[in-house]
Amino acid sequence: MTELQILSKWKGFPMRLRWIGLLCVALLTLAAAASAQRLSNAELKKQVADTERAFAATMKARDHAAFASFLSQDAVFFGGDGQVLRGKDAVTQAWKTFYIKPEAPFSWEPQEVEVVESGTLAYSGGPVYDPSGKVVGRFNSIWRLEAPNTWKIVFDRGSQVCNCKK
């Protein structure tokens, strides 16, 4: 049924109510289409893991601009020295030092990924490696879906691994 056919069925109603009705029908149609296209949790987890891998690849490629593209404007990164970096600009500026030298000072990869039922927030975590491949830390990140299929990192915290004797 076209919009004109719908409007013609409402001839006895004032024009304002006709347009409100048409708007409601359009919104319901869009909502139905959006819910029909919702990805499964497994698909969302794969999407986040792939995004985390692409984020990590910026370090290997020495591409600081690409690194910045994964950050939410609201990003909060916790530094190893207790410093908290707030906002994309602060994180980008602080992390520039890791991208200056030709060799990457560390690398990381996702080992765990979980996505909340709404599909809008995700956790990723995994090992951090030194240049020789030795595990030296662990990262924990929270991602937010900010646009269709566009995950941005909002929280990140790294921690050293314990070399404790058992």
Give a quick rundown of the structure.
Helix content is 38%, strand content 30%. The protein is an alpha+beta fold and 166 residues long.
Per-chain topology:
Elements: H1 3-9, H2 15-36, H3 41-60, H4 64-69, E1 71-78, E2 84-86, H5 88-95, E3 107-108, E4 112-115, E5 121-129, E6 135-147, E7 150-160
Parallel strand pairs: 1-7
Antiparallel strand pairs: 1-2, 3-5, 4-5, 5-6, 6-7
Keywords:
166 residues; alpha+beta; seven-stranded mixed beta sheet; 5 helices; 7 strands; 38% helix
Assembly annotation: single chain
How many helix segments? 5
Assign a percent range to the helix content.
25-40%
Largest sheet data: 7 strands, mixed
Gross geometry? globular
Written overview of the protein:
Helix content is 38%, strand content 30%. With 166 residues, it is an alpha+beta fold. Strands 1, 2, 3, 4, 5, 6 and 7 form a seven-stranded mixed beta sheet that branches. It starts with a helix and ends in a 6-residue tail after the last strand.
